[in-house]
Amino acid sequence: MGWQKPVEAQQQLLFKFEGHSFANSDIGNSYHGLIQLEPQGSKGSTILRQADFARCLVQAELDELGRIQGAINRRRPPLPSYLKKDVAQDSLLAHGLRALYDPTPQYRQGHMIFFGYYGLRDVRELAAFIVSVVPQALERFLQGRVAQPVDDTPPHLRPKWLDTLGKPDDGG
Predict the structure, then answer these.
(1) What phi and psi, each to the nearest 5 degrees, are found at residue 4?
(2) pLDDT digits over 115-155, tens only?
(3) Domain coordinates of the chain in residue numbers?
(4) pLDDT tens-digit readout, 47-95
(5) For residue 50, which of 126, 149, 150 has the smallest C-alpha distance?
(6) Strand locations in the chain, DSSP E?
(7) Any alpha helices (H) in 7-119, and if so which ranges?
(8) Burial of 35: CB neighbours in 10 Å, binned 0-12, 13-18, 19+
């Protein structure tokens, strides 16, 4: 879901949310937001600037999101027995599963945040939050005030090939 609107100098602002491709009816799903600036008419073929939506939030907004996400995580049904072995591992899967059940997530500016949900109530709460902060987040993006990316993945779990890609664009 998303929208686009023309902005100054023949440019277009694109704002969208993308669902995670791995959906599990036992533990829920997630989505993340993307803000992009491109030349008008390029339809995504030329990107001038791009940032994860959460990187355009300030700390007070991230704290509020953490409270909302924590409440959602506490309501989530218990981890299914077939995943109990996986959550105890030292792996990317376990890292992600533990985040789904974190009762008090602590977000910092620069985190790429997946908005996790299980039921309709969760989606409504996240949507209400997004609606309340999107105007300010879009304005920050247009002004180039985007937080530097933060990756909290334990270094030994980061795929080695990622190191060959260099640093991500700052979105500004």
Answers:
(1) -135, 150
(2) 999 999 999 999 999 999 999 999 999 999 999 998 888 87
(3) 2-152
(4) 888 899 999 999 999 999 999 999 999 999 999 999 999 888 988 888 8
(5) 149
(6) 2-7, 11-19, 29-39, 49-52, 115-117
(7) 59-75, 81-87, 92-100
(8) buried
Structure-block tokens of residue 7: 């902005």
The DSSP 8-state label assigned to residue 150 in this structure reads: B
Read off the pLDDT band of 44 (50, 70, 90): low
- Altogether, the residues listed in the chain come to a count of 172
Q: Name the token pair of 4.
A: 């686009």
